[in-house]
Amino acid sequence: MTLAPQANRLAFRSFDEAVAALRERGMRLSTARRLALEALFAAERPVSAEWIAERLKIELTSVYRNLEALERNGIVRHVHLGHGPGLYLLVGEGEREYLYCERCGSAQALEPEQLDPVREQIRERFGHRARFTHFPIVGTCAACQVAGGA
Amino acid sequence: MTLAPQANRLAFRSFDEAVAALRERGMRLSTARRLALEALFAAERPVSAEWIAERLKIELTSVYRNLEALERNGIVRHVHLGHGPGLYLLVGEGEREYLYCERCGSAQALEPEQLDPVREQIRERFGHRARFTHFPIVGTCAACQVAGGA
DNA sequence: TACCAATCGTGAATCGTTTGCAGTAGCCAT
DNA sequence: ATGGCTACTGCAAACGATTCACGATTGGTA
Question: What is the pLDDT of residues B6-22, one digit of tens each?
Answer without folding.
Answer: 444 566 789 999 999 99
